[in-house]
Design goal:
- By secondary structure, the protein is mostly helical.
- It has a domain of about 70 residues.
- The protein is built from three helices and no strands.
- The longest helix is centred in the N-terminal third of the chain and has 43 residues.
- It is elongated.
- The chain starts with a helix and ends in an 8-residue tail after the last helix.
């Protein structure tokens, strides 16, 4: 019983040491995926016009390009991560504002 507990404890310690590095990149990727889903929902629901969709998609593409540039050297620095998070915050706000601005596509 003690051996199992110690093994589990060691495994958890090793996993938690690796998790923050991969977790931060996963956070950026999951936010990008979530925002793409929100844009698609806005298009399907008629809440976004074609022009709004184009602008939001272009903003998302710029963020993806900046992320790719940041990853080129193999690691995203804390400053790069903070900048990407701020850009994702702004994009999220823009999506929300455009979806709730009262303009409807073709209606």
């Amino acid at each position: 019983m003690k051996r199992i507990f110690v093994s589990l404890l060691c495994g958890a310690a090793m996993f938690s040491a690796v998790l923050p590095v991969h977790g931060l990149a996963a956070t950026i990727n999951s936010r990008e995926h979530n925002q793409q889903s929100r844009i698609r929902q806005g298009v399907r629901g008629g809440e976004l016009t074609r022009a709004e969709t184009r602008r939001l998609e272009a903003e998302e593409a710029r963020i993806r390009a900046r992320e790719a540039r940041a990853k080129r050297d193999g690691k995203i620095t804390p400053a790069e991560r903070e900048r990407l998070q701020k850009e994702l915050d702004k994009a999220s706000h823009d999506i929300s504002r455009q979806k709730h601005d009262g303009q409807n596509r073709g209606e």
